[in-house]
Write a structure and sequence with these properties.
This protein has 7 helices and no strands. By secondary structure, the protein is mostly helical. The chain has one domain.
Length: 246
């Protein structure tokens, strides 16, 4: 009888350890897939925008649009929803690294909501692809690419340094900080003052996560991921609202 109970306990322990190992492996793989998808989304958007501009130039010369104090381009509103929704999904995924166990279900639901908004934004972007965009102006598009490439370089270089210093827990706040700062540069591209607010919120999230995470005994990525994911989700929904209000 005792041997049977010991065997059951051994099998149960082995099963739990195997399940835990599989979960950790799945989490690492899924995080890698999410970041690759995010980068692919960036570069695909850049490529499509460049193709569109070149086509319009061939048809009737350089594309010129009158700049406004506020962004008034329908397609850009839909791209807000798709891109912010996608990166909200990515940040919520990163938040799954080491949150409290009771948070996981809510983070998962938030990820699903962000993905849904992203897909709606993608559909509307494709549907309105011929509509005017701030990026149809060649100078604005070049400034956009320059700002994004600088962001990717700084985020990647900083993450590499932190990994080398064995400070992996600082990577998520660092990237949230750089992402926030780059929206300051994008404000002049889209003529949209709300990007200043987005920048301030993401920078605040990045800084606060370093102080809040130890108190809650979770990874910095949990707080940074939830905070950045929530902020970007709100701005994705705002993009849909602005699109519908046109």
């Amino acid at each position: 009888m005792w041997i049977g109970q010991a065997t059951v306990r051994s099998i149960s322990t082995t099963s739990e350890s195997t399940t835990s190992a599989l979960f950790l492996r799945f989490r690492r793989v899924s995080q890698g897939i999410l970041w690759r998808a995010a980068l692919c989304g960036f570069f695909l958007f850049h490529l499509l925008s460049r193709i569109m501009i070149q086509c319009k130039r061939k048809e009737g010369g350089a594309v010129q649009h009158k700049r406004r104090d506020l962004m008034e381009y329908v397609r850009d509103y839909t791209m807000y929803a798709s891109i912010f929704g996608m990166f909200s999904f990515v940040w919520f995924g990163w938040a799954q690294e080491k949150p409290k166990a009771s948070w996981r279900i809510y983070i998962g639901l938030a990820s699903a909501a962000a993905l849904l908004v992203c897909l709606v934004g993608v559909y509307l972007s494709v549907k309105n692809w011929d509509a005017p965009s701030a990026l149809s102006d060649g100078t604005a598009f070049r400034n956009y690419l320059f700002t994004v490439y600088i962001e990717l370089f700084l985020a990647g270089a900083g993450a590499f340094v932190f990994y080398k210093l064995n400070r992996q827990n600082v990577v998520a706040p660092w990237i949230a900080f750089i992402v926030g700062i780059h929206f300051i540069g994008l404000q002049s591209v889209f003529d949209d003052p709300s990007l200043y607010l987005l920048a301030a919120l993401l920078v605040a999230v990045s800084i606060l996560s370093i102080f809040i995470s130890p108190k809650l005994q979770v990874a910095n990525s949990a707080i940074a991921g939830i905070g950045a994911g929530t902020v970007l989700f709100c701005f994705a929904v705002l993009g849909l609202i602005r699109y519908l209000s046109v």
